[in-house]
Structures are given as structure tokens and as C-alpha cells.
Predict the 3D structure of the following.
Amino acid sequence: MAAQQPFASADIRSAVSAAIHRHWGLFLFEGIVLIILGTMAVLVPAVASVAATIVFGWILLLSGVVGLVATFRAKGSPGFAWSLISAILGIAAGLILLSMPVQGALSLTAVLIAFLLVEGVATVLFALEHRKGSSGRWSWVLTSGIVDLVLGFILLAGLPGTAVWALGLLIGINMIFGGWSLVWMALHARSEVMATSAP
């Protein structure tokens, strides 16, 4: 059974590559759209932050409603009370974010800061462990951890003002990088398609 695994993963990679080559135009279009949206988010990060909070609010609200319906449909099952509490909390959190998106952005930024600080400390400690083992790439890992810590402290020092732009800016940067990666992937696939179809 284990011997067949490499063949399955090779088949998956081959299928993905074929799909990219067939539909490179769609990937190019998606990449351009992501770059445009990401640039808009970077230029107007406050709007992007509020928009992200609203989207997250809807996700929580809808998941809470679905959870509530599923809980009542399985009323006799074990853990009914906990499932009910979880669904109600999801609905309540979603409604709060939707009704107060600016304050919600502050809460999400606080979570982001906590993540960056914890991730930064963990990455720095991980890098130092690799240094003891004379790993060649420990300095890059250390740099990544320090960048996380610096970002976390910058956002923390600027609260509550950073909540207005931090989420939108980071989402925008992420979308731009994701968009460019799709564009380059699509152009590479296009050049390969052109090369194979040339007489």
C-alpha cells in the first residue's frame, strides 16, 4: 500500500500541471484581479480592514446558524449543550462584528498582534536551537522571527490607531504577492504551451 503512494502523488502533480497548462488564461486573469484588489487594499487599508472584519463577521454568523440548526436536528446526541453554546457564541460574535466593524477590526488586530509575538518568539527559539546544531539556514529563520516580533511590537505600540490600517495592509500585501505568483505561473505555463505547439 505504501509503495503505491509516490505514484499517486506523481499522478496528482501531473494532473495539476496539465490543468494549469490548459487554463493558464484563467490563472492569469485571477492573478491580475488579485493584484488590482491587493493594490486597492494597500492604498486604502482602512476600507480593507473594515471589509475583512465584515467578511469574517458573516463567516462567524453563518457558521453559527448552521451549527444551531445542526444542533437542534441532533437534539438527543451527546454534548448538545456545548454544541448549542458554540453555535450561539458564533452567532453573537458574527453579529457584533457586523454591527461594529471598526471595533471588530481592533479585536482582530489584537489577535494578529498576539499571533505575531508568539510566532516570533517561537521562531527565534527554533532558530537558536538550529544554531546549536550548526544548521546552515538558522540565520534566515532567526531573521523571520525577529521580523515577526518587530511587526508585532509596532502594531502593539500603535494601538488603537494601527487597527484601522493593519489588517487591510497585510491582506493587500498578501493578495499582491499571491496575484503575482499566479501571473508568473500562468505566463510560464503559456510559454511552455507555445513552445510545444510551435511547428
Summary: Residues 162-197 form the longest helix (36 residues). Helices lie at 5-22, 24-43, 45-73, 80-99, 101-132, 138-157, 162-197. The chain has a mean pLDDT of 79. The two ends are 43 Å apart (CA to CA).
